What does this fold into?
Amino acid sequence: MHGLTGRMKVLNPPALLKRLFLVLAMVAGVSVQAHAGITSLKKGATIALPEFTQLDGTVLDQNTFKNKPVLLEFWASWCPYCARQNAYIQKLHEQLQDSDMQIITVSIDKNMTAAADYMAKHKYTFKAATFTPQVKAAFGEIKVIPLVYVIDKNSIIQEIIPGEMFEEDVMEMRKYVK
It folds into this structure.
């Protein structure tokens, strides 16, 4: 046991409980990324990304994302799970800002001033857009937040991740940078 001390990772109780739940769900045969009812989109499907209107009103057209991997997150300023995850998204954004991966987030807030104030308060610099009719047409009604899509450079959905992600899981998204 003495020799293992340097390699053991200590998890805090909430993280330990969350991991235990995920393991139990997998053992019971429940998919933790089950998409039924969350989205009509499926992993492996091709998606045409719409243009995105950022919180400041600027528009990101489809060419912004052409031939680039994209991490897309849906969130809201009032969501405590999003608040924790967005800190990890910011860290990933800072690490990847010189790469070809595009990180775009979409606020589902009804009040875009609240979303913009949230971004300013936390000093987030990742791209943040509004939930426009074009975004809704592409992704459907958002029923779970946070909700992350990872789309490869060929516009194929590689991951659909509903719910809060651990920091190490967000950082693992670096694997899509080529």
